[in-house]
Design a protein that fits this description.
The structure holds 2 protein chains of 2 kinds. Chain A is mainly α. Chain A contains 14 helices and no strands. In chain A, 80% of the residues lie in helices and 0% in strands. In chain A, helix 3 (82-112) crosses helix 7 and helix 7 (162-178) runs antiparallel to helix 10 (208-224). The longest helix of chain A is centred in the first third of the chain and has 54 residues, at 3-56. Chain B has 14 helices and no strands. Classes of the chains: A mainly alpha, B mainly alpha. At the A-B interface, helix 1, helix 3, helix 4, helix 5 and helix 7 of A face helix 1, helix 2, helix 4, helix 5 and helix 6 of B. Chain A: InterPro entries: BP-dep_ABC_trans_perm, MetI-like, MetI-like_sf. Chain A: Belongs to the binding-protein-dependent transport system permease family.
Chain lengths: 293, 305
Amino acid sequence: MTPVNGLAARTAAREMLRQRRLAAVRQVVVRVTVYAVAAVAALVCAAPFLWGLATAFERGTPGARHRPTTEHVRALFHSTRFPTFVVNTLVVGGLVVVVTLALALPAAYALSRLHRSWGGRAGLAILLVYLVPPPLLFLSLSRVVATLGLADSIWSLVLVHPTVTVPVSVWLLAAFLRGVPVDIEEQAMVDGHSRFGAFVRVVAPQVLPGIAAVVVLTFTLAAGEFTYALTFIWSDASMPVSTGLPARLGGGDPMLWRSVQSGAVFVAVPLAIACGLFLDRFVSVLAQGAHRD
Amino acid sequence: MSGTRARAGDRTRLTDREGFLAWAFLLPTIVYLTALVVAPFGLTVAFAFSRSTSDAPSYRFGGLRGFRAVFGDDVFWRSLLDTLTLTCVSVVLVVVLGTVLAHVLRADLRFRRTVRTLVLLPWTTPVALSAISWRWLLGPAGSPVERVLRGASLLHGGGSPLGRTGPAAVAVVAAHVWRLTPLAAVIVAAGLNAVPSGVWDAARLDGAGFWRRLFGVTVPLTLPVTAVAAVFTAAITFVDMAVVRVLTGGGPHDSTQVLPTLAYLRGVEGGDIGAGAAASLFLLPLFLAGVVVALRAVRRAEAIR
């Protein structure tokens, strides 16, 4: 090895070390940035609820230092009908989930597997229906609900909420169903199942994770719906949380405000945790959609 | 397929006939949606040309009376403009912030599950309840935002920020952006997942820098899914009534009313079903226009690809 070559090798080695150090620094900067953005995002997203939770246990004016108290949370259960609102939301949400699955699962199967010449148009029509927003319908639907004798009853919401949840669920379930190999269905039919039997006993169990995701999404949408609940229901006994709690703000009792804040947090956290469990599944279905188009 | 069916049995059962099954499976959904979406939509159009009120709800034809009432209403024009402005500003902010958040959601973080649950809070919480929390964060004397604004001398005199026209409008936009950014992030993250990771590595090996990779690779590849996120954001913001109803109540002085809350104000609280229906009909053409524009953008993006 000549001295010149040795010099070149040393320079190259030094250059490589420099490059590696630069890459390491860059990686640290990227990691720090990602963590910083994640922390800020999480904080901003949770901020209103954190503040609501912090003040729910305070005495006196917000921000002032006092011994924590549970009186506001107790007032939520004694001075408001929060428990009634929660039960109404759970009943409506549960029934809407059942109705939605009963309608959407067969429809999604028909659209994704039973190839008809009009299948594409039917799918598009269902999607278009989803685009008709509640503010265009609440005036006429309130007449429909009144005519059916369902005004001011939670049954009005059970009847109407699936108009929002069915189209979304059809679309999602069809995406899940396309992920099931056709072979297992054909095998089931070879084994003596009818096409219907193959759907119920073999295909539906395959998309159970997808069904679970749709259940959570449907419940979340039904629990969050505001326009119809506001229009159809006016007595405390039938109100869901989404209109029951805001209505308590109008009372002018500032002490009750803190109770209402804690109520919002009690509803928000379980829903976020439930949806968080299924986030990856939603992302993967959406990714399929993005990939196919 | 036909071979399979022949082997499945000699009888052709009703439950094996695809044409019958397809109809039987789709019909309930079609009947339900026709009865409770398509027909009521027709009824809304009919109501817009009626003189029906909540005291006399039976249908009486009223010609253009409802539209005349709406056009003569100053609040209608303001709420129309507000709805459009709110939607456009929200979409831009949501798409930009959502794209940033999408990268964070995909990143390999130590507290990934906690971060994701917190980030999902705005999207999964019933919007009316989020609006309650926002009102508590912004509104009353001594609330954090109120104190910051006073500290920065941006708020003078008495009253809450929500009692001022400008800050109240900003609050409505902020609440919408806060609520829909996680949804946009999830959609964009899905689009990013669908791109094979080799593409980025290839671009990096070819010597493309960060900005070059961002605008030369990431943005074009995720454009369709970004458009989807924008359409969702626009559609949800455009028709939302809960944020304005709960956060500002449309005030101060009807300055933050949007079309949906105006339709409720006139049609339900004011009892003039005709005028309320006429006002709500204005949601439709603008809404459809937005959808068409977005779909066209998606198709163009794909044609380029």
